[in-house]
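cron nightly-structures :: item 1 of 1
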Amino acid sequence: MGKSPAVELEVEDRVVRISNPDRVYFPARGETKLDLANYYLSVGDGIVRALRERPCMLHRFPEGVTGEKVHQKRLPHGAPPWVRTVRVHFPRYNRHADELCVTHIADVIWAVQMSTVEFHPWNSRAADTEKPDEWRIDLDPGPTCPFDRVRRVALVVEEVLAELGAVGFPKTSGSKGLHVYVRIKPDYGFQDVRKAALAFAHEVERRAPDDVETTWWRKDRDPSLVFVDYNQNTRDRTIASAYSVRGVAEATVSTPIRWDEIPDVDPREFTIATVPKRYAELGDLHAGIDDAVWSIEPLLEWAARDELEVPDEQ
């Protein structure tokens, strides 16, 4: 069978060419490359808000999600002149990379043309890539951890955030966990944000010791518990953004949810087939995140009180 002819999508004031639009990317469901582009158009404001002006690593699947996966830090060759980048430095190798810096939904659709399925942004922005403005709480279940346990821990997270006066914005991971994002003042570097995240994780563990652990080494963790992964705030550590499709055959989506949905939420229900209707009805549930800025200083005080130090990066 020959390749399907390319199509051109009008994306606001730009045109993006999609080659091989009928290539099946998600075999469990049958959605194609063009379906993927149309999905991102349907959640345009949301995905742009999640990625805006952040260095962004791309997970590309040139043959669909059952084929080879390419982790792309540098912007792929052939980008149109309107696609912006941000340069980041990797001290370990003393190298730089010019990463995608989304400012417009057309940037996202062009990345799809380059076979991108997942978008993994930094938690800092182009204005100062060394000062995070997003604290990420990753509830990572062990291999035998039931999802009910993840739900319970999420509600403890909500409780602690409320006591701190911080507003958390939850979402599914698109896999087996849940994430909560908090917009923070970009006053501290990655190590301080990571230390604050560790102090928070310890408090959640204190309140839910039968459900949570914060053990550093994976091999030492109880596989039935939830790891509150403070390491997701490490420099250059990224996770799938809100509204990012995941590179799995079922085309699940990392989807913003309300706190009151958590007791009954089933992440498997959120796919590129179902999220557009939900988005049309509810809008972007993370729309207020940039207006809910909080300081991590209380958490740094907890860390000092408990004499916490973050381990060296794994």
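cron nightly-structures :: done
The chain has seven helices and 14 strands.
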